[in-house]
Records
---
Amino acid sequence: MCEALKELMKDELDAKWAEGFAEGRALGRALVILDLLKDLGEVSEELQRKIMEQSDTEVLNQWLRYAARADTIQEFEQKIQ
């Protein structure tokens, strides 16, 4: 891409990059939560879907703490209700 075009599209490219970065962070957190829960047992499709559909990283951060401290999947599910 030529420099002039890059400059013209800088704001749009920056916004797209930031959006993609945020989506990647959310996806990464969701996958870590699922990994932690899978150590506790079988994770239902419904719970997997709920976790994977969450895009708010603050919510996912809290869920990650819950998953790290949970003794059972049911305990985790109760906390995220």
---
Amino acid sequence: MQTPTYSALLRAACASFLLLAASACGSAPTQDDAPPALGNAGLLAQIQAEVGAAACDSTQQCQTIAIGAKACGGPERYLAWSSKSNDGKKLKALAQAQAEASRKQQQADGMMSTCSIITDPGATCQAGRCVLQKSGLGGSSAM
């Protein structure tokens, strides 16, 4: 009977580890791992659909809304939208749901952020479309 060499034992250990890791990746998700009904991507797509082209005739029609949530608090970013053909109620509800889904996902994943503060840049009407103002220009209030 021949004694196994160190490299053969090492290969066997690596193969066992890979098999264990692969079986763990293929396990069925538990109830706690299930994503929210729409999830962040679905909610973000709905928000973008609700914003649409953000058509405007004047800057007074342009608003901003906070999108997402950072692990330390505050939004991930802002999005410009127009009140010309949108009262913002559905948009605000979608943004709040998306921020909550983002916070839950971050807590589940144990995520951290830079804790930097993102200020509302405000929005302006350019070429018939609401856009975020360049930083440093100040801005209008969010919803």
---
Amino acid sequence: MLSYDDKRDFYRMMVNSDVTVTIIDDEANSTLLATCRDLSATGLAIEMSHPLALNTLVKVNIDSANNGVQSLNVKGKVVRVTEETSDSYLIGINISEID
């Protein structure tokens, strides 16, 4: 029997990169730092020190380490929150728009 990961429509790239997360839902447009764990054509998983609420709208920026490659800016919605340790949460984000 195939596992869930084997049924994905898009492959996930394992990434270990710092990202900037801006919460679109709040009036202050709070900006947080996180680490991107993996990325696919439709979503990404980030690791943060505190959780975000499900359905929170966010913008995520991944800076490029290479001047020849453009940074990645996406908008999306929080679809999964998993507590990994007492100070580490894995946040699943469904990408709705790529800038």
